[in-house]
Request: fold
Amino acid sequence: EKMGFDLYGMNPHNPNKAIKPKLDWDKPTTEEQRKEYFAKSEEYRNEVVGDYFRSNVWWWRPLANYVIDFTGCVEEGDIDLWHENGGHEVDDETAKQIHNQLQVLIKSGHTKKFEDDYEKERLKAEKHNDKVEKELEKFCKSVYKKLGKTVAPADFPKADHDKWETIYHKKIWSASYPFKVDHVKEFAEFCRFSGGFKIC
Reply:
């Protein structure tokens, strides 16, 4: 799986007919050309908000789940497709619905409360994981001492490796997945102007 999700607007709203910059990546390019391309791309995206939305996997999962759980716009059969890079298409009408529902959730304070509760739990999980890390460190040191050398946990004797695994699995993975209202707002705007989009 890729470490991120790229969402492409299928018919992005472009009232001023902004021209999307192009660069032929198959040909050698200069630093200067690349810089200019990225600057122009940034300008284009600021103007054509529905063209492209990118999110790394850590940010995308909670956002997608929020949309799935609270907008009522994602059909049950499509839920998994929101978590895959398979090019799942969301039509224009649904994209606009998602925007409208997210606006309601944001305005009502639901999204902010969700963020506060979510972040509280996430920080608790982070603290918990710090303790697990310390426990792992301590355990690894004891194994190194016993073996008289430093080795990766994968190369620990079986009993030690099993114990390491047990400690490691105490980690709470949600600690790595942040959620912020601003991210939801940005996504809502993308939906509104995308003309429908693909999740790649």
In short: Residues 110-147 form the longest helix (38 residues). The chain has a mean pLDDT of 95. The helical segments are 31-47, 57-70, 92-107, 110-147, 158-168, 181-194. The first strand starts at residue 4 and ends at 9.
